[in-house]
């Protein structure tokens, strides 16, 4: 008797294949098929299925279908034990029916359940068993002609392979994972190309849900292969496409599952990149959507870790313990292990190594039972830290060595980076051979620093630099100081300071003079009335990347000693090292004038390296204690007119002009002395004085670190002696015999990062003036109102402009100086038009804003731009600011050789984690020299009866037209300093003129485009 599907039309025409001789099951009712054709059934064996009635067969078939539905529901609810029981009964029914397809469906689903529970060993066994049986069943199907069954087992193979894709990804075997994904896509295409009715509808993926699952797996592979930035972008697209099909009944449940899967992956990427706020948002979404279930419990573990960082350690521990209980009830042993590991991490953070070790070892038992190699690697790292905390160095190094070997074997270089750092940390702490620690630490630090630039998102770059590259660099600098490796340390600082410009835009996407492209701007979350800084939110998805440092050269006589280490880092951690032009790290020397090159970098403490163009190969390296830098910042912030949080502009100016700040000579001198004692080392001061005494005034060129971006370097006093111990404020004067300042002995300018690519400047032509543009929707007396106040034909600035017009044409075309001030047409379109032709200099005077966070296009000019114009900043009412990103993405690719950006903190680029705002954007576009200010400029309204703002503008414009603008501007500031000493009144306060600085790249000799 033959029951079930119709028999084949013709009997087998060949003997039983050898691979079937040992098989206990040949496929759907194959034994019955043999008897049906009168073949000897002995080789095939007899099963109860061969004697089933049609009714019995149908009843068992219905039961199998119901069991599978039940098991899937239990698995979706993360009831692992219940799902196992249902699938076990389903397999029994499959054997009664002699239905290999049903058995494979159960086992492939079990592979998924085991994987989700963290039981990787059984997940692999189930998945590989499915693929093995698939091969045997395929042979039987071909032999007996039961081709309908082939289509039925195809889905089980796909499910099993997806488990193997995940397992291969976790083990770092990305090649196999990609091979399996490619095979799935090829078969899916083949099924769709087959004739109608050839395959069940669920195998044809009509709504694309299966392909979206493959894309999530692709994203996992990207993460394992070291491209989390690309994975995150892919996950964003996947989530958008899942949302588009979420209401289709046939795939609704699958979409819900895939959405959770994608959000969980995105949270993991956020956490790995240090983007804690974004990770928390995703985890909160998962916790709320799946409240009361295991998915929510998993999310709660991540949220508890963030809670601990906020200071609630007991609450975090309690939350993780509760989540672990829920996961244990569901039988999710892998998640239980993760929870125990999280608990151990918090306890270790609290200093309780004993309890932490207990939790880690509990996680290790589960990972061992589950065959979770990556988990066991985490265990070794955790136990190494516990042992190190107890001072058990031998045990710590044993665990670290095992973790390193596991990471090396896995091929996952981010894990190798992490385990190497743990080993280096232990070696440094225990006092191991410093050279051995250096051999480990230096390449991994270089790799960590380079990897930052693989992230497309600026928030991820900043978080990576803070949480991964930063600690490694701080440890390395401490080790190099211990070893006396001044040259390597100085080169590392040069490399840290050489960060390039934004790059990577496939094409210029902002056409400022034409049609408006759709950019998908995010709404502004900022207040519309921000004091001195009114820039709205900048989109995080700009098509820009930060360029990594180029290849550098130390001096004409010497290459970088770091170069071999960079090669080792690239080899050890699989970092791409594209060929790049070698860039000099020093400016050209001027005949008869010594140039001092100062670069500051933050790595735990702040480090200063300085040298001179007369002696480039002599290294001067100084660590500046973080406490000293903090003190300098505290005094400077108290005196600066840049408003503090919650402070009005008027209150900030009054504070700055107070007796303890820039309102009195004594207060200002005290600030200059505090800054100098904390920031200028004795050897630099002595060498500056000697260079000044020997001849022409030297040039001091400074690239500050973010903490020191607001320092007015020319104003700093020069100490005559150093205290043998820390002085209180009253004793500072004992270190000085007079009031000699840096400006008295040297000219000062800022130094551009060596990695900024630079285009040739515009051809020489008329000067361009953008003076106090009218901003749409803003009153002249509002936050974005006039910075010049009312001007008339007798005003000093207007007389200066009239004189310029008498010398020749200016841009935009004007007959009188008054026509250049408070125009309504000075928007980004006019800027693009004016800079498209020859021009000698650009003078902008107006509002400059700094973004309220540390990401993206950091600064913006406020031109007369309406909100309808294209740009990356959200509008402020009727106005859209013009950001550095707008400049980088627009067709404005050439600047005049000299530029002035006179506005609040227009030189603040160096104060950000990514120093590329409008200041350095202008340099990248061709400006050899940019005059700007390091703090917010009070307007002349602060001192009735005087016009210090106009004096500054006239001085800057005059200097830009001179042969040597830096020398001219420093001479003007020296004259202002002399007047301040003689007549220390508000109108002559350094608050109006000391913030002015020049970023001078004229002699850097770098006209290159990346």
Structural write-up:
Helix 14 (333-349) packs antiparallel against helix 15 (353-370). Strands 8-7-6-9-10 form a 5-stranded mixed beta sheet. Helices cover 51% and strands 8% of the residues. The protein has 34 helices and 18 strands. It is of the alpha/beta class and 1010 residues long. A hairpin with an 8-residue loop joins strand 13 and strand 14. It comes from Amycolatopsis orientalis (Nocardia orientalis). Residues 1-15 have a biased composition (Pro residues). InterPro entries: TPR-like_helical_dom_sf.
Q: What is this entry, summarized?
A:
The protein is α/β, with parallel strands linked by helices.
End-to-end CA span: 77 Å
Number of helices: 34
- Strand runs, count: 18
Average pLDDT metric: 84
CATH architectural group of the domain at 18-204: Alpha Horseshoe
Strand content: 5-15%
Order of strands, widest sheet: 8-7-6-9-10
Question: Nearest-angstrom radius of gyration?
Answer: 35 Å
Protein name: CHAT domain-containing protein
InterPro entries: TPR-like_helical_dom_sf
Biased composition (Pro residues): 1-15
Region (Disordered): 1-20
Which terms would index this structure?
single chain, 1010 residues, alpha/beta, Serine Threonine Protein Phosphatase 5, Tetratricopeptide repeat, 5-stranded mixed beta sheet, 18 strands, 8% strand, elongated, TPR-like_helical_dom_sf
